[in-house]
Amino acid sequence: MSQLAHHRVLLKLSGEALMGAEDYGIDPLVIHRLAREVIEAQQAGAEIALVIGGGNIFRGAGLAAGGMDRVTGDHMGMLATVINALAMQDALEKLGGKARVMSAIKINDVCEDYIRRRAIRHLEKGRLVIFAAGVGSPFFTTDSGAALRAVEIGADLLLKATKVDGVYDKDPNKHADAVRYDTLSYDEVIARNLQVMDTAAFALARDSDLPLRIFDMSQPGELLRILRGENIGTLVQGRS
Ligand code: UDP
């Protein structure tokens, strides 16, 4: 039995986290580093599932703003998340990890369909599972996919990696006096009008009593430190 504070977690990475300094696509060095951190955290004893967004390739809302049908745009966005998931699977396997991509839309020549019991079995057997295509429906985001899958697999923590190291009372890039919260309740996030996830994802996490930690994964070692119980970033949990 591991000495970790968290046994099974779901890590949500935005698609942009894979871009590095590029403005599109996947930087091989960046995905390699992220994969290495995930494997190190898994080797410490945690079961880890991942959700990766698609914003480094396509977002439905952006395509719709350019004139495309929104549902078609969202389908393209979901396929973008499958591309990222396959890239992460490859990066994890190159480092010796065992990984399975499971998609919410059927595309089973390239990856498995999402089946909850099978996903849990993969985790129990020491495989990393990457959930692709969000919830499988348009008008949602991968934040919602992450919250949904985290609840379904019984994760004890949802981790959201962002470009800033937690939740602040105002934008820390614009205000030098912005203050970072250590902990927040779900009700405080609403009362203070803080943006931590999109509304559907937020409501599901809150109603399911799923703790959520927001942190900056560009800082090496943070994932493992969180799993060991260190208070990094901002923890959102509880009702008041
Ligand atoms: N998407 C969707 N349904 C889902 C998840 C994602 O339609 O359940 C589409 C949507 O167009 C979204 C895109 O896939 O913009 C990429 O996901 P997201 O924007 O969450 O990626 P991120 O911002 O995390 O990179």
Overview of the structural elements:
The radius of gyration is 17 Å and the shape is globular. 45% of the residues are buried. The mean pLDDT is 96. It has helices at 28-43, 60-65, 70-94, 116-124, 142-152, 186-191, 199-207, 222-227, and strands spanning 8-13, 47-52, 99-103, 112-113, 128-132, 157-162, 183-184, 212-216, 234-236. The chain has a single domain (8-236), classed as Carbamate kinase (3-Layer(aba) Sandwich), CATH 3.40.1160. The chain is an alpha/beta fold and 240 residues long. It has a nine-stranded mixed beta sheet, sandwiched between helices. α1 (28-43) packs across α3 and α5 runs parallel beside α7. The longest helix is centred in the middle third of the chain and has 25 residues, at 70-94. Helix content is 37%, strand content 17%. GO terms for molecular function: UMP kinase activity. Pathway: Pyrimidine metabolism; CTP biosynthesis via de novo pathway; UDP from UMP (UMPK route): step 1/1.
- Counting DSSP E segments of at least 2 residues, the number of strands comes to 9
The amount of beta strand, in percent, is 15-25%
Walk across the major sheet and give the strand order. 4-3-5-2-1-6-8-9-7
Can you tell me the residue ranges where pLDDT is under 50 for at least 5 consecutive residues? none
- Estimate nothing, just give the exact number of structural domains: 1
Rg to the nearest angstrom? Answer: 17 Å
Helix segment tally = 8
Kindly report the name of the CATH homologous superfamily: Acetylglutamate kinase-like
Strand/helix succession: EHEHHEEHEHEEHHEHE
The set of bound ligands, ions and cofactors reads: uridine-5'-diphosphate
Enzyme class: transferase
EC number: 2.7.4.22
Function: Catalyzes the reversible phosphorylation of UMP to UDP.
Protein name: Uridylate kinase
